[in-house]
Design brief:
The protein is α/β, with parallel strands linked by helices. The protein has 13 helices and 11 strands. It is globular.
């Protein structure tokens, strides 16, 4: 009896893996990635043990390969992507860069990423505090407050990417996700109508449940991602399930990543996100310069070229008010690139900037701020 059950399980696993392999090769699933043993996805150097969640292990090296790029990552003594250690002996006119994967330089060789390109143009040190893996403005604020502010600098640059920044720290979005136990901060409704508190989901877990979740996230899930195509099927089922359970929830909340985030009308997501950006500007109010760079998607640029206007929407009006109130410089990349231009700035198989994108943005910031 046990032998038959064992054989049935093995046969089922084999069929599932075979189905997942075929479905992946024909791009039939929502997620169609090759396992890590074929492509290294650059996740080994990442950690979520900090107060702000997503970050990098200290003094660590990793490799990231996909169908359209291959690069290596290396972190310094505090986990930042840089080839020098950070200390209190850094130049006092250093610049702190805050942001997500685009600031980190996802998929691009170190000497071609934005901070390195800008350093060469202005002959000043740019401290790279960018991080991928769902890293939003609330995390940038907490990272600055607890880490980046400890190092000499007199200026900050913040990359704002509406495509994910309106959702990365939005608990109304993530509370329905299976992976909500990740150690990351979220904003939730505060006592006032436009007030927000910081929430960590793990604080409500008991020790046993927390250890079970850690086993799943740190052991079982990485095994599937590294060695199986079945991971694609499971992630696809998870996405379908998420869509199913949210079909009757509050329609005023945007639970899905908007294809054209410049045109978002989710007021809760907007106000919660802008609250975090306001706190970043408050914390850095004594800096000589503060610059915010807004980054569009191809769909945003397409809608703009078709005559759609986003500058009358709440999020953009709030951004203008904040930058004026705190005397910060605002650069909207959508004002400087066309759809065709931007296609050349991103990878063919990925929406992140390629080396051309980093070079263009570094030149734009140089011309706008320093020249």
């Amino acid at each position: 009896m046990l032998k038959k059950i064992f054989i049935s399980i093995i046969f089922t696993i084999f069929l599932l893996e075979f189905f997942s392999f075929i479905a992946t090769k024909f791009n039939l699933l929502i997620v169609n990635n090759d396992p890590d043993y074929i492509h290294s996805y650059g996740n080994k150097w990442r950690t979520e043990e900090t107060k702000w969640g997503s970050w990098h292990k200290s003094n660590f090296e990793d490799v990231h390969t996909t169908k359209c790029f291959k690069t290596s990552y290396k972190s310094n003594n505090i986990g930042a992507r840089d080839n020098i250690d950070y200390s209190d002996e850094l130049p006092s006119n250093s610049i702190v860069l805050l942001g997500d994967s685009l600031a980190e330089g996802f998929g691009v060789d170190y000497d071609k990423i934005f901070p390195q390109q800008l350093e060469k143009k202005i002959n000043r040190k740019v401290l790279n505090f960018g991080s991928a893996a769902h890293f939003g403005p609330l995390q940038a604020k907490i990272l600055y407050e607890n880490l980046a502010s400890n190092y000499p600098h007199n200026e900050i640059i913040f990359f704002f990417t509406p495509w994910n920044d309106f959702l990365d720290n939005n608990w109304e979005y993530w509370k329905l996700k299976v992976r909500k136990f990740r150690n990351r901060p979220y904003f939730i409704k505060g006592t006032g109508p436009d007030e927000f508190d910081v929430f960590y989901p793990q604080t409500s877990d008991n020790y046993v449940i927390l250890k079970i979740k850690e086993l799943i996230f740190h052991s079982i899930q990485p095994f599937f991602l590294k060695y199986t195509y079945t991971a694609n099927t499971l992630r696809t089922l998870n996405a379908v399930y998420f869509k199913f359970i949210t079909r009757n929830v509050d329609k005023n909340i945007n639970y899905y990543k908007p294809t054209s985030p410049y045109f978002i009308e989710d007021n809760y997501a907007v106000k919660g996100t802008m609250n975090s950006i306001k706190n970043i500007l408050r914390l850095t109010s004594k800096m000589e310069k503060r610059t915010i760079l807004i980054i569009p998607t191809l769909n945003d640029l397409k809608m703009i070229e078709n005559g759609e206007n986003y500058k009358n929407l709440l999020w953009y009006k709030m951004m203008i008010d904040l930058t004026e109130k705190y005397s910060a410089k605002l650069i909207d990349l959508a004002d400087h690139v066309s759809f065709k231009d931007y296609e050349k700035m991103i990878f063919e198989c990925d929406d992140h900037w390629n080396s051309n994108g980093h070079s263009f943005v570094a030149s734009l910031v140089f011309e706008t701020i320093y020249n």
